[in-house]
Design goal:
alpha+beta
Length: 340
């Protein structure tokens, strides 16, 4: 008996779809295993590195220019020191920010070496919990055994993180509250230099500049690097003391389909809860400024500028084309500012 040609084609499609689905599942499992394996490898490396640091015999500490310079700005992308001595540049071993200028250097005295090594080792073995993704380092540390460099890290007190390089890449690690900042400031005071402190500000965006406004650059897309200049009022409507909590939520946002119709798709949203007093103020402010934008600043930088679409109280739901990763990044910055 012959099978009709159409049925053959249908069977072929079903078989092909099944193979595609199976292939996608295999790839997804492989990616999950790779990520999980990477985290375990990094954790194990960090613990072994902590043990090596504890046995070091020399530490140099540095005051840094708290600004990092990308590869494209310093010349050869394979040379983070731009052909200059490592006594002038300090490597910041994370993507796109390879070095910061050294402004002062100190060889740690022997009587202070052991306490510092204990703190650095503890920092590696027991890092903090909350991680902010920015990094403006003011101190750097190099740990040696003889002439071999065992560990090099830069410290950001604004976002409370440090850098850790490894044979498979660099990353930010949360800075624990174990006394590292206090000891570094005793060893190498910043001589009047103000440590950048994160602060949370909510300001209204206006259309015209005046003596009561300020123009700020706003990175509209973290991936493309596109920027927009916004004019905000200098007056701060809400600060970190007005914040009760910030978290990620799912938001059913209508998106266009290919045929022009709209359907709901769950995208990440950011939920901010204000204190009761701030909630009353927000209700009045949102009623008076419907359709206008409100800028959310962390450390004097705009992290988002949503439009006021409805009268709000304590609960603010900020939606947009946020991926979960983008939402987590913004939430981390706001949480870090609120802790200050």
């Amino acid at each position: 008996m012959r099978i009709p040609l159409l049925v053959c084609f249908l069977l072929g499609e079903i078989h092909a779809d099944g193979r595609a689905s199976e292939a996608t599942e295999i790839k997804s499992k492989a990616e999950t295993a790779l990520l999980e394996g990477h985290e375990k490898l990094i954790d194990a490396y960090r613990i072994q590195l902590a043990a090596a640091v504890a046995k070091a015999d020399r530490v140099e500490v540095f005051q840094l220019d708290d600004r990092v310079t990308g590869n494209e700005k310093i010349g050869d992308p394979n040379d983070p020191f731009n052909g200059q001595s490592k006594d002038k540049w300090f490597r910041v071993d994370v993507p796109e920010t390879p070095s910061s200028k050294i402004t002062e250097k100190l060889l740690v005295p022997q009587e202070k070496l052991e306490p510092l090594l204990r703190i650095i080792s503890n920092m590696l073995e027991h890092p903090g919990e909350e991680l902010a993704a920015c990094h403006d380092p003011v101190h750097g540390i190099r740990v040696y055994s003889g002439e071999e460099l065992l560990f090099e890290t830069s410290l950001c007190y604004k976002c409370l993180n440090f850098t850790m390089g490894s044979p498979i890449g660099g990353e930010y690690v949360p800075l624990p509250e174990n006394g590292i900042k206090a000891m570094m400031l005793k060893l190498l005071p910043l001589h009047g230099k103000v440590i950048p402190a994160a602060g949370l500000e909510l300001r209204l965006v206006v259309s015209e500049a005046s003596s009561e406004t300020e123009s700020l650059s706003f990175k509209t897309s973290p991936n493309s690097g596109a920027k927009d200049d916004l004019i905000t009022k200098k007056a701060v409507e809400f600060a970190e003391t007005d914040l009760e909590s910030v978290s990620m939520a799912e938001y059913a946002e209508p998106i266009p389909e290919q045929d022009g119709k709209k359907s709901n798709a769950n995208s990440a949203a950011i939920q901010i809860v204000l204190t009761p007093e701030a909630g009353k103020k927000m209700e009045q402010l949102s009623e008076q400024n419907l359709g206008k934008r409100i800028a959310i600043l962390v450390d004097h930088e705009i992290v988002m500028a949503p439009t006021i679409q409805t009268i709000m109280g304590r609960n603010l739901m900020i939606s947009g084309n946020f991926t979960p990763e983008e939402a987590k990044r913004v939430i981390g910055k706001i949480q870090q500012a609120a802790r200050k």
